[in-house]
Amino acid sequence: MKENAIRQKSYAFASRIVKAYKYLTREQREFVLSKQLLRSGTSIGANVEEALAASSTADFINKLNIAAKEARETSYWLRLLHDNEFLAPAAFESIHTHNLELIKLLASILITVKNRRLNS
Q: How many domains does the chain contain in total?
């Protein structure tokens, strides 16, 4: 099966989120915010996977919209963890930049698919 960018990037991001969760719970002893981060951060890739198996263009768009919302929520939790000193600046910048790349990529895909749908 041919891999695509959003699938690869969202999976790699989910893996980073799992590692961040382990760090936050083991080293920082932070359990509530980190669980929210784990849920939203891993949900991005899960929704991308569902989109790739969509039964229609509308279903594909719906699943990618959910992935985009989860990515924005993940940005919120990352910023909150950083601003409350659970994530060091360098670690935050790295993972948040990855998250912002996903948000932009998802937005780009959604715009392209919606435009194709309108023009067909």
A: 1
